[in-house]
Amino acid sequence: MALRSEPTARQGRLALELRRLRDAAGLTAREAAALLGVTAPVISQIESGIAGVSEKRLRRLATHYACTDGDFIDALVSMATDRTPGWWEEYRGQLPTLYLDLAELEHHATYRHDVEFLHIPGLLQTAEYARALFSYQVPRLPDEDLELRVQHRMARKTVLERSSPLPYKAVVHEAALRIRVGGRAAARTQLSRVLEFSEADHVTVRVIPFELDDFAGAWSAMMYAGGAVTKLDTAVRDAPHGTAFIDSEAQLGVFRTLFRKVEADALGPKPSRDFIHRLAKEL
């Protein structure tokens, strides 16, 4: 099997989980290699994501690592053996890898939760809104690159529109709803799009109004994607050095709790729709 030059985030996560299992078992890469009858560099390649692993080898490693969580092992096997190219692969070499990793993450997610304070969540954006956001980047993107980003963002919405749509919850602050990205007409169209999505059974949008008393969670913006098992969840946050994928069990527990807190502070789904409808009429 050829080595990969650039593992995807999903391939990297599989590699990380296998490394964690080995570490928990107290084995070195050389000892793990001996159990499979391979060399230590093979284990290192698997654990760095540059080499794949077969179902047979993965299950043998899990047995040697004394992992008895059958659902977790099955989920890892699915990650290792599903090599179907996703639609986002057509953008490889044209967009930063992060864009592809986000699309891959939400494509395989079992649910997604968003908390946003300044912008409408990407999955709910119109093309005009997204184009205005990308146009504001410095240095300015060439027109071709800008349109590729808009096309990619619009394509990501298929997870909400496919035959088995992704269960989705978004908590959006009033500030994000009021900022007129792209101008008044674009903002009105954007609010209408949010209302349209919020009517779907698998989509829930809640609003945090300015008037909410004693709200101190404005630092809690996040994207949270559920994995096939809880251990494989992923939180995504913007950081000064770039976008961070968070996968430690302790931190994931923190973000799950944080989302529940922010969700509980927000208006309910029906009052939120009424709130957004009023804002749209004001524009």
Can you walk through the features of this model?
- The protein is an alpha/beta fold and 283 residues long.
- It is built from 13 helices and 6 strands.
- The chain has a 6-stranded mixed β-sheet, with helices on both faces.
- A hairpin with a 7-residue loop joins strand 4 and strand 5.
- Helix 2 packs across helix 3 and helix 7 crosses helix 8.
- The chain is elongated.
- The N and C termini lie far apart (57 Å).
Compact summary:
This protein is an alpha/beta fold. The protein has 13 helices and 6 strands.
**Percentage of helical residues?**
40-55%
Indicate the structural class.
alpha/beta
Q: How large, in whole angstroms, is the Cα Rg?
A: 21 Å
How many beta-strand segments?
6
* Order of the strands making up the biggest sheet: 3-2-1-4-5-6
Instruction: Please give the largest β-sheet.
Output: 6 strands, mixed
Let me know the average pLDDT. 96
Name the overall outline. elongated
Oligomer: single chain
The end-to-end span amounts to 57 Å
Into which percentage range does the β-strand content fall? 5-15%
Number of helices: 13
- List low-confidence stretches: none
Run of helices and strands: HHHHHHEHHHEHHEEEEHH
Give the key terms.
283 residues, six-stranded mixed β-sheet, 51% helix, elongated
Task: Record the SSE blueprint.
Elements: H1 9-25, H2 29-36, H3 40-47, H4 55-64, H5 70-81, H6 97-108, E1 111-116, H7 127-135, H8 143-156, H9 158-161, E2 168-173, H10 174-178, H11 184-198, E3 203-208, E4 222-226, E5 234-239, E6 242-246, H12 249-265, H13 269-282
Parallel strand pairs: 1-2, 2-3
Antiparallel strand pairs: 1-4, 4-5, 5-6
Helix pairs in contact: 1-4, 2-3, 4-5, 7-8, 11-13
